[in-house]
Design a protein that fits this description.
about 110 residues; alpha+beta; Arc Repressor Mutant, subunit A; three-stranded antiparallel β-sheet; binds zinc ion
Length: about 110
């Protein structure tokens, strides 16, 4: 009986260290968000300061429709947020963890 009890404790401990489905889904979606050059450029620009959709399109020389599409992807993952100023939407970063990962990755790419 003693050995069975130990076995159960071991299983419980292992279970606690396992990633649940929701966590796995969010982590993989977040890496997916960071795996596209356009989205990397948008997030890196927003790390500087908040920008409107127009400003992002101008700075990155991209179509406004492309920028809007990518911003909604990033918004769904809660990586960006917006506030309305009149008819203008001002976007900014909404997650310090992910921005930290992105900046680390940029540093990594540039240190060689
Ligand atoms: Zn490195």
């Amino acid at each position: 009986m003693g050995s069975l009890h130990e076995k159960n404790e071991g299983n419980t401990k292992q279970y606690k260290n396992q990633l649940d489905e929701e966590t796995l889904f969010i982590v993989s979606q977040t890496f997916k968000a960071l795996s596209e050059p356009t989205r990397i450029k948008i997030l890196h620009l927003l790390a500087e300061r908040p920008h409107s959709v127009n400003e992002i399109a101008e700075r990155l020389e991209m179509l406004q429709s492309t920028v809007s599409h990518q911003l909604s992807f990033l918004k769904n993952l809660r990586l960006v947020k917006y506030k309305r100023e009149g008819t203008t939407m001002i976007y900014s970063c909404d997650d310090a963890h992910v921005m930290g990962v992105l900046e680390q990755m940029i540093d990594h790419a540039q240190h060689h």
